[in-house]
Amino acid sequence: MEMREYIFQNALKGASKWELQQMEGRSAASVKIPSWADIEGIWWPVRLSMEQCSSEPAASYKASVVKGFPGRELLVDFTGGFGVDFSFIAPHFSKAVYVEQDAELCRLARHNLPLLNLRNTTVVEGRTEDVLSEIIGEDASDIVCLIDPARRDAAGRKMVGLKDCTPDVTTIVPTLLEKGARVMLKLSPMLDITAALRELPGDWAVHVVSVDGECKELLLVSDSREIHAVDIQHDNVSDFCLNDKSQLLPRTEWADSVGVYLYEPSPSVLKAGLQDALPGEKLSKESHLFTSDEIIENFPGRAFLVEGVSGFSKADVKSLLAGVTKANLTVRGFPMSVAQLRKKLNLREGGDVYFFAGTLQDKSHVLIKCTKI
Question: Which of 23, 94, 141, 215 shows the greatest Cβ crowding within 10 Å of its Cβ?
């Protein structure tokens, strides 16, 4: 029986709202936070909090970042939420403070943190702006502050700029930096990185984090100019890093043709704007696809063996698609959407064949048939 059906059946049997919430939460955690799901007695929050909390791989990555910080005396998570990030990062500090304005999430944290063997922690209920001065003294040089500002207003509309988020980190962060604290901001991957950096003082490292091929979060960490495109696949973490993006020169040369191998950069690389630092030859300015005649080891993205290349004349397309009834389609710098191209090619979705539609530097359009390596 599927979990949704199981919960529905229990609802019919008169299970309370709390009992149904626990069933649903534990089911979601088995995928999103598996190490928590194995712990008896954890209390689970409402669905929205489960959806908004970090996944275990993303939380583990943040913990790996802070492990490199010197003087980890105190962690302060000013927007604790369900506490997933807090629980993974706190063990690397002598003391940790969880701050959250939602009374119910604080209640859950007080119950759950001891079950997670986090006994050097304090739970504080309140708004960041109201409790900051009580927690952070004049010297915060051994303190790391984590802030995950809410990206919706009271009407549920998504906010675009940092000033529109709650709490307003553009007013809080300068105070923390002046006192010597190190700050980690967890932000939406939809946020414009350049615009966000313009709203903050000082230097910031940028970490664009993807999990299983989907860009999940943007981390800004004070005191560095590095930029990281991080791709987490199962237990494997790849980090394509540039020390200073301002030193990245745009490409001016392009591939003459499609070679033996084709490469698609990871979503993190594209979001971070690091594609021009990648190895291999780029097909064109419009198409973020790369090619080579020799295999490129550890390319930050997907690698494919090219089986054939054609233009878009009826004869060429018919020859390239011979015997193929379903395939995975991707368009890069191409004047049609995936849905439009799928309809034009009359291909069902799925299978082991991959087609990429792109544009070469001479503006000609190509269809590339591949198999994944």
Answer: 215
